[in-house]
Design brief:
Ribosomal Protein S5, domain 2; 2 domains; four-stranded antiparallel sheet; 40% helix; 21% strand; Mevalonate/galactokinase; Ribsml_uS5_D2-typ_fold_subgr; ATP-binding
Length: 385
C-alpha cells in the first residue's frame, strides 16, 4: 500500500487525518547466526521491506491499535503499567508503551495504524521492526530524547521481558541503525559497530522465503539459549570468560572435554566457529573477495544445520539447490531458523533464471512454492511525514 492509500485507510478507521508517518525496515543477517546472545560479532543489514506506522493523538487517553495486515484490534486505556495478553501482534507496541511509561515519559492517547510487507514468521525481524518503529514514533512525538542505540536496547527489553524471548540485540540494532548499501558489523557484547560497504559487484542478494512460518517464542530458540548458558558455565571451570564468543577455537578444543555432553558440545562449537567466520567474512568483504564471502555463507549454514540444529528440510532444500546452481556463490539460512528465510548471492544476470529454477525445485521437494525476491540494503528507522 502506498502512503496515500494508507492515509485514506487511516481516515476510514479513525475519522480523522494521520498526523505522522514513520517507517522501520526489516533485516537480514549476512553471517553470524545465533551468536548475538553469546557476545559475538554479527553482520546484519536493513532491507527495503518493513513496517509503516500512521499515528495521531487523541484526547481520550486510549491507545487504539489497528493493522492493515491483521484482523485483530484492541483499545487499551492509559495505565501506569501494562502486561502482555495472548500472542497478538499488538503486544509489541503495548510493550514499547510500557517501557516509555516505566522511563517516566508521559505518553498520551494515540490512534495507530500499522502496515507491513514483511512476511510474519519469515525471519526478517517483523517483531523488531514493530518495536523500533513504535519506539521511534513515541520518541519523536513525546520528546523522549533517546538516540537510535537506546531505541534498539528498548526494543530488546520488550522482546526479552515483555514478550518472553531470550533474544540478543542484533535485530533491533540492525533495523534502528541500518545504512543504505552497508552491512553493520556489530559486537553484541560491547555494542561497538562499524559500517562495511556491501559491494558485491555483479551479484545480487536474493532472499528465499520457505513460506514455512514459525513463532520464535514457541520454538526451540529459548532451548538453544539455555544450552549455550550450560556450555559456558562448564567451560568457565577453566576459562575466565563472560561469553562463549570470547573463546578461541584453539582454547575450545583444549577444554571441550569439560562439557561431556555431545549435544551441548556441538552447540558451543557452532558459536565459537561462527564468530570466527564473521571475522573472516569482514576481511573478505573489505578486500572485495566475494567468492570467499560466499564460501563462508555455505560453511555457516552447514554449522547451523549439523551442530546447532536450527535449520530444517525447507531451508536445507534452498541451500542444497544453491550449491548446484553455477551462478550462485553462497547461501545460508538467515535469522533464527526453524523455517523463515534463506539468502543467496546470485549473479544479477541470472537472478530470473535462479528464481524460476529454485521455485520448481523447492515445489517438487516440499510440495509448495517459496517466495523469491532480490533485496536492496536500506536505511534504518526513520520519519516519513
Amino acid at each position: 500500500m502506498t502512503i496515500d492509500n494508507l492515509k485514506i485507510e487511516f481516515e476510514k478507521k479513525f475519522n480523522k487525518k494521520a498526523e505522522h508517518v514513520f517507517f522501520c525496515p526489516g533485516r537480514v543477517n549476512l553471517i553470524g547466526e545465533h551468536i548475538d546472545y553469546n557476545g559475538g560479532m554479527v553482520m546484519p543489514c536493513a532491507i527495503t521491506m518493513g513496517t509503516t506506522l500512521l499515528v495521531a493523538k487523541n484526547d481520550e487517553h486510549i491507545f487504539r491499535f489497528r493493522a492493515v495486515d491483521f484482523p485483530e484490534t484492541t483499545d487499551v486505556s492509559k495505565q501506569s503499567t501494562y502486561s502482555k495478553t495472548g500472542d497478538e501482534w499488538f503486544n509489541y507496541p503495548i510493550g514499547v508503551i510500557h517501557e516509555f511509561t516505566k522511563a517516566g515519559i508521559d505518553v498520551t492517547g494515540l490512534d495507530m495504524l500499522f502496515s507491513g510487507n514483511l512476511p510474519i514468521g519469515s525471519g526478517l525481524s517483523s517483531s523488531a521492526s514493530i518495536e523500533v518503529l513504535t519506539g521511534h514514533a513515541l520518541n519523536e512525538m513525546f520528546n523522549g530524547g533517546m538516540d537510535k542505540v537506546e531505541l534498539a536496547l528498548l526494543g530488546k527489553r520488550v522482546e526479552n521481558d515483555f514478550m518472553g524471548l531470550n533474544s540478543g540485540i542484533m535485530d533491533q540494532f540492525a533495523v534502528a541503525m541500518g545504512k543504505d548499501s552497508n552491512a553493520v558489523l556489530l559486537n553484541c557484547d560491547t555494542l561497538d559497530y562499524e559500517y562495511l560497504p556491501f559491494e558485491i559487484g555483479d551479484y545480487v542478494l536474493a532472499i528465499v522465503n520457505t513460506n514455512k512460518p514459525r513463532k520464535l517464542v514457541e520454538s526451540k530458540y529459548n532451548e538453544r539459549f539455555n544450552e549455550c548458558r550450560t556450555a559456558l558455565k562448564l567451560l568457565q571451570q577453566n576459562l575466565e570468560v563472560t561469553h562463549l564468543c570470547e573463546i578461541s577455537i584453539e582454547d575450545f578444543t583444549k577444554n571441550r572435554s569439560l562439557i561431556n555432553d555431545p549435544v551441548i558440545e556441538n552447540r558451543a562449537l557452532h558459536v565459537v566457529s561462527e564468530d570466527e567466520r564473521v571475522k573472516k567474512a569482514k576481511d573478505a568483504l573489505v578486500s572485495g573477495d566475494i567468492k570467499t564471502f560466499g564460501e563462508l555463507m555455505y560453511a555457516s549454514h552447514d554449522s547451523l544445520q549439523s551442530l546447532y540444529e536450527v535449520s530444517g528440510k525447507e531451508l536445507d532444500t534452498i541451500v542444497e539447490f544453491s550449491k548446484t546452481y553455477e551462478d550462485c556463490i553462497g547461501a545460508r539460512m538467515t535469522g533464527a531458523g526453524f523455517g523463515g528465510c534463506a539468502i543467496a548471492l546470485v549473479k544479477k544476470d541470472s537472478f530470473d533464471d535462479f528464481k524460476e529454477k529454485i521455485t520448481n525445485y523447492y515445489n517438487e521437494k516440499i510440495g509448495y512454492k517459496p517466495g523469491v525476491f532480490s533485496s536492496v540494503i536500506a536505511e534504518g528507522v526513520r520519519t516519513v511525514v
